[in-house]
Amino acid sequence: MRNRPFSYRITLEADAMAEFDQHVVRRLSSMKGQFLDEQAYSAMLAQGDPLLYEVYYVERPEIAGELITGLSIVHAGKVGDEYFMTKGHFHAVLETAEIYYTLRGEGLMLMESPEGDWAAEELRPGRVLYIPPRWAHRSINTASQQDLVTFFVYPGHAGHDYGTIEQRGFRKLVIEHDGRPSICDNPRWRPPEVKTGSVARGW
Ligand code: S6P
Ligand code: ZN
Predict the structure, then answer these.
(1) CA distance 157 to 168
(2) How far, in Å, is the centroid of ligand 2 from the Cα of 64?
(3) How far apart are alpha carbons 132 and 91 in whole angstroms?
(4) Which atom of ligand 1 lies nearest, measured to the CA of 26?
(5) Assigned domain for 195 exists
(6) Is 100 in the pocket of ligand 1 (CB under 6 A)?
(7) pTM of the shown model
(8) Checking DSSP bridges between strand 67-74 and strand 118-123, what pairing results, if any?
């Protein structure tokens, strides 16, 4: 791991990716249960296991004070009418923010808070998105062909809680309707379970 000040390129040329320490790939098979149209999901999986998105990042100690930076690349495509998207997550340390800067493509960042608020912000080249602490986030590529490429920065100790979204989904979905992205309610969204605590029962 680098222990002196350093710089790197985010020029989007293929060879620039070599400057990152880690490369994570996410295929359709890792997104089971996340897309609404399960028939379209199974049919697509039967044809192969397409690459939905990739993340390149610079390794840093996962501690407060550090920053983790990298590139997220969501490829273009749809499962049924729903655009390719990232899994989405809360940060495990909920009180940590994140910044995204869009370099290429077009898309939406879908966000929601545990308190029930939600938001969708456009991801367009040249725009910075500030995600405050507590907001889960999922990036969605709404272009028909072009990759959605974003640069991200988040605190080293943030960590990732994927389980909450895997179990409940996001409150909203982004689907193509009449050739355009449209935000609708997720019919499968489930409210958080109420924790009953350890009250003793007499049976
Ligand atoms: C991490 C940050 C991004 C995402 C990436 C992939 O906090 O938000 O690096 O990891 O966009 O999304 P996901 O939901 O699979 O981590
Ligand atoms: Zn994040």
Answers:
(1) 24
(2) 15
(3) 11
(4) 15
(5) yes
(6) no
(7) 0.94
(8) unpaired
Structure confidence at residue 197 as a pLDDT band (50, 70, 90)? low
- Which residue's structure tokens are 């997720």? 186
Q: Is the CB of 87 under 6 A from ligand 1?
A: yes
pLDDT digits (tens, 9 = 90+) for 89-146: 999 999 999 999 999 999 999 999 999 999 999 999 999 999 999 999 999 999 999 9
- Does residue 6 fall inside a structural domain? no
Which residue's alpha carbon is at the smallest distance from atom 14 of ligand 1?
88
Number of domain units in the chain: 1
Type and span of the H or E element at 129: strand 128-131
Q: How far is ligand 1, taken at its centre, from the CA of residue 200, in Å?
A: 41
- Ligand 1 site, residue 106, Cβ cutoff 6 A: no
In a domain, 7, yes or no: no
**Ligand 1 and 88: CB distance under 6 A:** yes
> Which segments of the chain does DSSP mark as H helices, in order?
38-46, 163-168
Q: What is the pLDDT of residue 202?
A: 39
In a domain, 158, yes or no: yes
Q: What is the pLDDT of residues 20-66, one digit of tens each?
A: 999 999 999 999 999 999 999 999 999 999 999 999 999 999 999 99
Q: Establish whether residue 152 lines the binding site of ligand 1, counting it when its CB lies within 6 angstroms of any ligand atom.
A: yes
Read off the CATH number of the domain in which 113 is found: 2.60.120.10
> Domain of 162?
17-199
Q: Which of 23, 20, 16, 81 is nearest to 53 (CA)?
A: 23
